[in-house]
Amino acid sequence: MGDKILLVEDEQLVGMMVRLNLQGEGHTVTWARTAPEALAEATQKPFDLVLLDIGLPGGDGIELLAELRRRGIGTPVMMLTARGDVASKVRALDLGADDYLGKPFNVAELIARAGALIRRSRADRELPADKLVRFGAYEVNFATREAVTGRGRVTLSEKEAAFLATLVRARGATLSRNDILEEVWGMDATPTERTVDNLVLRLRKLFEPNPDAPVHILTVRGAGYRFEP
Ligand code: CA
Questions:
Q1: Which residue has the higher pLDDT, 95 or 214?
Q2: Which domain-ending residue is among 94, 110, 125?
Q3: Do 179 and 81 lie in a common domain?
Q4: Which of 52, 84, 105, 127 has the least CB density, counted as fewest CB within 10 Å?
Q5: Are 115 and 21 contacting, i.e. CB atoms less than 8 angstroms apart?
Protein backbone atom coordinates (compact mmCIF):
# COMPACT_ATOMS: atom_id res chain seq x y z
CA MET A 1 0.00 0.00 0.00
CA GLY A 2 1.21 3.51 -0.79
CA ASP A 3 2.03 6.18 1.72
CA LYS A 4 0.02 9.23 2.66
CA ILE A 5 1.83 12.39 1.68
CA LEU A 6 0.85 15.96 2.44
CA LEU A 7 2.12 18.22 -0.33
CA VAL A 8 2.21 21.90 0.63
CA GLU A 9 2.91 23.95 -2.48
CA ASP A 10 1.28 27.06 -3.93
CA GLU A 11 2.85 26.87 -7.39
CA GLN A 12 0.36 25.12 -9.62
CA LEU A 13 2.85 23.58 -12.07
CA VAL A 14 5.30 22.35 -9.44
CA GLY A 15 2.44 20.94 -7.37
CA MET A 16 0.89 19.13 -10.31
CA MET A 17 4.18 17.63 -11.36
CA VAL A 18 5.05 16.42 -7.85
CA ARG A 19 1.57 15.06 -7.20
CA LEU A 20 1.46 13.21 -10.52
CA ASN A 21 4.82 11.57 -9.89
CA LEU A 22 4.05 10.61 -6.30
CA GLN A 23 0.71 9.14 -7.36
CA GLY A 24 2.57 7.23 -10.08
CA GLU A 25 4.58 5.62 -7.27
CA GLY A 26 1.34 4.52 -5.60
CA HIS A 27 1.24 7.21 -2.90
CA THR A 28 -1.89 9.06 -1.81
CA VAL A 29 -1.33 12.80 -2.08
CA THR A 30 -3.24 15.52 -0.26
CA TRP A 31 -2.36 18.87 -1.78
CA ALA A 32 -2.64 22.00 0.37
CA ARG A 33 -1.94 25.34 -1.30
CA THR A 34 -1.76 27.63 1.74
CA ALA A 35 -0.22 27.42 5.21
CA PRO A 36 -3.57 27.43 7.11
CA GLU A 37 -4.95 24.71 4.83
CA ALA A 38 -1.82 22.60 5.42
CA LEU A 39 -2.02 23.07 9.20
CA ALA A 40 -5.67 21.97 9.19
CA GLU A 41 -4.82 18.82 7.20
CA ALA A 42 -1.75 17.93 9.25
CA THR A 43 -3.54 18.24 12.57
CA GLN A 44 -6.60 16.30 11.44
CA LYS A 45 -5.07 13.15 10.03
CA PRO A 46 -1.82 11.29 10.15
CA PHE A 47 0.58 11.50 7.20
CA ASP A 48 3.74 9.55 6.44
CA LEU A 49 5.52 12.58 5.00
CA VAL A 50 5.05 16.32 4.54
CA LEU A 51 6.62 18.04 1.50
CA LEU A 52 6.73 21.67 2.51
CA ASP A 53 7.40 24.68 0.31
CA ILE A 54 8.81 27.68 2.17
CA GLY A 55 7.13 30.58 0.36
CA LEU A 56 3.39 30.15 0.90
CA PRO A 57 0.31 32.38 1.01
CA GLY A 58 -0.95 32.87 4.54
CA GLY A 59 2.35 32.20 6.33
CA ASP A 60 5.68 30.68 5.44
CA GLY A 61 6.67 27.02 5.49
CA ILE A 62 9.21 27.50 8.25
CA GLU A 63 6.60 28.96 10.61
CA LEU A 64 4.32 26.09 9.68
CA LEU A 65 7.04 23.56 10.47
CA ALA A 66 7.62 25.21 13.87
CA GLU A 67 3.89 25.06 14.58
CA LEU A 68 3.67 21.36 13.66
CA ARG A 69 6.57 20.49 15.95
CA ARG A 70 5.16 22.70 18.72
CA ARG A 71 1.97 20.67 18.53
CA GLY A 72 3.94 17.45 18.89
CA ILE A 73 3.42 16.35 15.29
CA GLY A 74 6.59 14.47 14.43
CA THR A 75 5.76 13.49 10.84
CA PRO A 76 8.92 13.64 8.71
CA VAL A 77 9.15 16.90 6.78
CA MET A 78 11.09 17.62 3.60
CA MET A 79 11.45 21.32 2.86
CA LEU A 80 11.33 22.51 -0.75
CA THR A 81 12.81 25.87 -1.58
CA ALA A 82 14.84 28.12 -3.80
CA ARG A 83 18.37 26.78 -4.11
CA GLY A 84 21.02 28.69 -2.22
CA ASP A 85 18.72 30.02 0.49
CA VAL A 86 21.18 28.94 3.18
CA ALA A 87 19.60 30.88 6.08
CA SER A 88 16.22 29.22 5.52
CA LYS A 89 17.88 25.83 5.21
CA VAL A 90 19.68 26.17 8.54
CA ARG A 91 16.55 27.46 10.26
CA ALA A 92 14.42 24.62 8.86
CA LEU A 93 16.87 21.94 9.95
CA ASP A 94 17.09 23.55 13.41
CA LEU A 95 13.33 23.42 13.69
CA GLY A 96 13.24 19.72 12.92
CA ALA A 97 12.97 19.40 9.14
CA ASP A 98 14.25 15.97 8.15
CA ASP A 99 15.50 16.82 4.69
CA TYR A 100 15.82 19.74 2.32
CA LEU A 101 15.60 19.98 -1.45
CA GLY A 102 16.42 23.08 -3.50
CA LYS A 103 14.23 24.17 -6.42
CA PRO A 104 14.31 23.46 -9.26
CA PHE A 105 14.66 19.84 -8.24
CA ASN A 106 14.85 16.64 -10.16
CA VAL A 107 11.63 14.69 -9.59
CA ALA A 108 13.43 11.35 -9.52
CA GLU A 109 15.61 12.67 -6.69
CA LEU A 110 12.55 13.94 -4.81
CA ILE A 111 10.84 10.54 -5.10
CA ALA A 112 13.95 8.68 -3.96
CA ARG A 113 14.55 10.95 -0.97
CA ALA A 114 10.87 10.94 0.00
CA GLY A 115 10.90 7.13 -0.05
CA ALA A 116 14.04 6.99 2.09
CA LEU A 117 12.55 9.39 4.66
CA ILE A 118 9.34 7.38 4.91
CA ARG A 119 11.21 4.09 5.35
CA ARG A 120 13.45 5.59 8.02
CA SER A 121 10.55 7.01 10.00
CA ARG A 122 8.56 3.81 9.65
CA ALA A 123 11.44 1.84 11.14
CA ASP A 124 11.51 4.33 14.04
CA ARG A 125 7.80 4.17 14.56
CA GLU A 126 7.41 0.42 14.57
CA LEU A 127 7.16 -0.92 18.04
CA PRO A 128 9.57 -3.85 18.00
CA ALA A 129 8.72 -6.88 20.11
CA ASP A 130 10.84 -5.70 23.00
CA LYS A 131 9.81 -2.05 22.78
CA LEU A 132 9.29 -0.35 26.07
CA VAL A 133 7.44 2.95 25.93
CA ARG A 134 7.60 5.37 28.86
CA PHE A 135 5.53 8.49 29.38
CA GLY A 136 4.90 10.43 32.56
CA ALA A 137 5.17 8.00 35.46
CA TYR A 138 4.04 5.09 33.31
CA GLU A 139 5.59 2.34 31.26
CA VAL A 140 4.21 -0.13 28.72
CA ASN A 141 5.96 -3.18 27.36
CA PHE A 142 4.23 -3.87 24.06
CA ALA A 143 5.74 -7.37 23.82
CA THR A 144 4.21 -8.67 27.04
CA ARG A 145 1.46 -6.01 27.36
CA GLU A 146 2.66 -5.53 30.93
CA ALA A 147 2.36 -1.99 32.15
CA VAL A 148 3.29 0.14 35.12
CA THR A 149 0.13 2.18 35.69
CA GLY A 150 -1.41 4.47 38.27
CA ARG A 151 -3.02 1.33 39.66
CA GLY A 152 0.16 -0.67 39.86
CA ARG A 153 1.39 -3.35 37.48
CA VAL A 154 -1.28 -4.65 35.15
CA THR A 155 -1.42 -6.72 31.99
CA LEU A 156 -3.32 -4.80 29.32
CA SER A 157 -5.87 -6.53 27.14
CA GLU A 158 -4.94 -7.00 23.49
CA LYS A 159 -7.26 -4.16 22.46
CA GLU A 160 -5.98 -1.82 25.15
CA ALA A 161 -2.38 -2.42 24.07
CA ALA A 162 -3.23 -2.12 20.35
CA PHE A 163 -5.11 1.10 20.94
CA LEU A 164 -2.27 2.63 22.95
CA ALA A 165 0.31 1.52 20.35
CA THR A 166 -1.78 3.12 17.59
CA LEU A 167 -1.91 6.43 19.43
CA VAL A 168 1.80 6.38 20.26
CA ARG A 169 2.75 5.55 16.65
CA ALA A 170 0.71 8.50 15.35
CA ARG A 171 3.29 10.77 17.04
CA GLY A 172 0.99 13.54 18.09
CA ALA A 173 -1.37 13.46 15.10
CA THR A 174 -5.05 13.24 15.88
CA LEU A 175 -6.68 9.92 15.05
CA SER A 176 -10.39 9.83 14.36
CA ARG A 177 -12.52 7.15 16.00
CA ASN A 178 -12.79 5.59 12.57
CA ASP A 179 -8.99 5.47 12.10
CA ILE A 180 -8.76 3.80 15.50
CA LEU A 181 -11.53 1.30 14.78
CA GLU A 182 -9.82 0.28 11.54
CA GLU A 183 -6.39 0.05 13.11
CA VAL A 184 -7.36 -1.79 16.29
CA TRP A 185 -10.36 -3.88 15.26
CA GLY A 186 -9.73 -4.22 11.54
CA MET A 187 -12.11 -3.52 8.71
CA ASP A 188 -14.39 -6.50 9.21
CA ALA A 189 -15.22 -6.07 12.88
CA THR A 190 -18.02 -3.65 13.68
CA PRO A 191 -17.62 -2.17 17.13
CA THR A 192 -19.31 1.18 17.64
CA GLU A 193 -17.58 4.48 18.21
CA ARG A 194 -18.86 4.12 21.76
CA THR A 195 -16.53 1.10 22.09
CA VAL A 196 -13.58 3.37 21.44
CA ASP A 197 -14.78 5.89 24.01
CA ASN A 198 -15.13 3.17 26.64
CA LEU A 199 -11.63 1.91 25.91
CA VAL A 200 -10.33 5.44 26.35
CA LEU A 201 -12.05 5.74 29.73
CA ARG A 202 -10.42 2.50 30.90
CA LEU A 203 -6.98 3.56 29.69
CA ARG A 204 -7.27 6.96 31.34
CA LYS A 205 -7.90 5.28 34.69
CA LEU A 206 -4.58 3.49 34.23
CA PHE A 207 -2.44 6.13 32.56
CA GLU A 208 -3.64 9.52 33.73
CA PRO A 209 -2.81 11.19 37.06
CA ASN A 210 -6.35 12.62 36.90
CA PRO A 211 -8.59 10.75 34.41
CA ASP A 212 -10.99 13.72 34.31
CA ALA A 213 -8.23 16.08 33.18
CA PRO A 214 -6.11 13.93 30.85
CA VAL A 215 -2.60 14.98 29.87
CA HIS A 216 -1.56 11.93 27.79
CA ILE A 217 -4.64 10.51 26.08
CA LEU A 218 -6.29 13.66 24.83
CA THR A 219 -9.70 14.19 23.28
CA VAL A 220 -9.67 16.49 20.27
CA ARG A 221 -13.18 17.85 20.15
CA GLY A 222 -15.05 16.78 17.06
CA ALA A 223 -11.98 15.02 15.66
CA GLY A 224 -10.84 12.09 17.79
CA TYR A 225 -7.88 11.34 20.05
CA ARG A 226 -4.27 12.33 20.31
CA PHE A 227 -1.36 11.12 22.41
CA GLU A 228 0.97 13.43 24.27
CA PRO A 229 4.02 11.77 25.86
CA1 CA B 1 5.92 28.94 -3.13
A1: 214
A2: 125
A3: no
A4: 84
A5: no
Give yes or no for a cis peptide into 128 (omega within 30° of 0).
no
Which residue range(s) make up the domain with 35? 4-125
pTM above 0.85, yes or no: no
Q: What is the CATH number of the domain that holds 48?
A: 3.40.50.2300
Distance (angstroms) between ligand 1 centre and the Cα of 11 equals 6
* d(CA 52, ligand 1 centre) in Å: 9
Q: How far does residue 116's CA lie from ligand 1's centre (Å)?
A: 24
Q: How far apart are CA 59 and CA 35, in angstroms?
A: 6
The answer to whether residues 119 and 15 belong to one domain is yes
CA 57 – ligand 1 centroid, Å: 8
Q: Hey, what amino acid is at 124?
A: D
Of 98, 125, 152, which residue sits at a domain end?
A: 125
